[in-house]
Amino acid sequence: MNAFIQSLNRLLASLYAVLQNRLALASVELEEEALRLFSILVQMLLALFCGTFAIVLLVGLILLLSWDTHPVAALLCFIVAFALTALWLSRRLVRQYRSKPPLLANTLAEIGKDIAALKDVPTKD
Question: Would you tell me which of 12, 17, 45, 66 could form a disulfide with 74, CB atoms 3.0–4.6 Å apart?
């Protein structure tokens, strides 16, 4: 009976160690995802600020230079250019979002391996 309790204790300790390992992996993956998202957000905000400022200055300059000759044509060109840019960026963002790896993919794969290993453990007759 004592050997059975020791064996059960070892089994529980192993299961606890596996669970602790998987939770640590999940924690690391969540932290990496949060850092990646924060980095993307900061870069997007900086790019948005710089790009908006540059575009406003460029549009103002071009409108100022063309105001006496073709102001409506210049405005229409800008409207079309901004609409096409917005369409291209939105499609690019959707494609980028869809191609990201699933959250906790490594953790789920390791848990799947653990389950498969537990199912394949040979029993002693």
Answer: 66
